[in-house]
Amino acid sequence: MDIIRTTDALRDFTAALRAQDYFAIDTEFMRERTYWPILCLIQAAAPGVEAIIDPLAEDLDLAPLGEALADPSVVQVFHAARQDVEIFYRQFEAIPTPLFDTQIAAMACGFGDQIGYEPLMRKLLGASIDKGSRFTDWARRPLSEAQLAYALSDVTHLREAYPILRERLENSGRLLWVEEEIAVLDDPSLYYTAPEDAWRRMKVRGVRPKEIGPLMKLAEWREREAQTRDMPRGRIVKDDALFEFARLRPGTPEALARARSAPNGFERSNAGAAGLEAVAAGAALPRDALPDLARNENRPPAPADVVELLKVLLKTQSEAYGVAPKMIASVADLEALALDDDANVPALKGWRREVFGDPAIRLKRGEVALKLKDGAVRICEAP
Fold it and tell me: How far apart are alpha carbons 123 and 362 in whole angstroms?
């Protein structure tokens, strides 16, 4: 098994990768105790070449890999690419391109919603993958032969799966569908949370207007602290505590100590003092500096019967086209569409509108109906 531990060896290997039309790539990492993922292993394979790269090796500069990932003439194949792309974006400050995600491709080929790597390889290639080394300490050296074999199999099977999936997409005319989905992964904001935007990842539904400013500033403080100290957000303070602090808006350590979700002694810590400052700063924000959450809060609930009817239509259309339902429309899309024929949702744009959006609008208007035929639901013109 070829394990690359020097820059010269990596340069030769990446040259071999770039000589092909595509290469498969995967990573092993750890982040249970850190904010930033720790890159522990990289696996790559192209037709006729494969290797494991040890990023923890002392004599290794990963720059040649960054150049390969930026080569526009070679397709880089991932499965469920987002976490791997996050790692490479942080490492090289660039997003791999052009990128192909076999999980997204599988959804367009009728393999279901977000199918995992092992079941996809089993269905597509008949491959049997030993998952015994999946949850191991990838940072510990030396790695066992079983760990290395498991890691390398992640890309050798992926190397074989890519041309099969691509051919199916080309034959069905859905390659552009998948490319449209994959293009979303080109957004750098997916891989870095600016502290001032940290509140957006929290479920703010139900937060009162006077609480949103303190919550925004508390989330900003925690995100910056987590990034600086390289610790998980929850190790700084948990979401529940931020929501409670925003609701109580404590102004003194004594008031902060009365919060049920505050850790013991939190009010006497530097973090507690910073939290109080964040609450005060958030409470002082002018109204025009706050997001308008009222519009969503005041929106009438989607009619349940219409949503359920749209769910039936979604299932019917996903089966008819052999596409995973989640790739066509989300529950939020259905709820918005139940309220508004012109809702600004993906289900009413591009190929999704043809597959589902237009039939959904016609169903709402009574222009088409759903009927049971031969044990299956079908769309028919309304009488």
Answer: 36
Which residue pairs, CB below 8 angstroms and at least 24 apart, start in 18-21?
18/68, 18/71, 18/73, 18/74, 19/46, 20/46, 20/47, 20/48, 20/49, 20/74, 21/74, 21/75
Angle between helices 270-283 and 209-229 (to 10 degrees): 140
Q: Which of 1, 2, 55 is nearest to 29 (CA)?
A: 55
Distance CA 145, CA 102 (A): 27
Closest CA to 279 of 348, 331, 222: 222
Q: What's this model's pTM, rounded to 2 decimal places? A: 0.88
The CA R_g of the chain, rounded to the nearest whole Å, is 25
Collect all residues with Cβ–Cβ distance below 8 Å to 284 and sequence separation of at least 6.
213
Quote the DSSP letter at residue 157.
H
Contact indicator for 352, 140 with CB cutoff of 8 Å: no
Site of tokens 């049920």: 260
Alpha helices, H only, the chain: 7-18, 63-69, 82-92, 102-108, 117-125, 145-172, 175-183, 209-229, 233-236, 239-248, 253-257, 270-283, 294-297, 304-321, 325-328, 331-339, 350-352, 358-364
The two tokens of residue 15 are 């040259």
Output b/e per residue, 187-202; b: 16+ Cβ within 10 A.
Answer: eeeebebebeebbeee
Q: What is the pLDDT along the chain (383 residues), one digit of tens a residue?
A: 789 999 999 999 999 999 999 999 999 999 999 999 999 999 999 999 999 999 999 989 999 999 999 999 999 999 999 999 999 999 999 999 999 999 999 999 999 888 999 999 999 999 887 776 677 899 999 999 999 999 999 999 999 999 999 999 999 999 999 999 999 999 999 999 999 999 999 988 788 889 999 999 999 999 999 999 999 999 999 999 999 999 999 999 999 999 999 989 999 999 999 999 999 999 999 988 888 765 555 568 899 999 999 999 999 999 999 999 999 999 999 999 999 999 999 999 999 999 999 999 999 999 999 998 888 888 988 87
Phi, psi of 16 (to 5 degrees): -65, -40
Helix (H, G, I), strand (E, B) or coil at 45: strand
Strand partners, 38: 30
Residue 28's SS3 state is strand
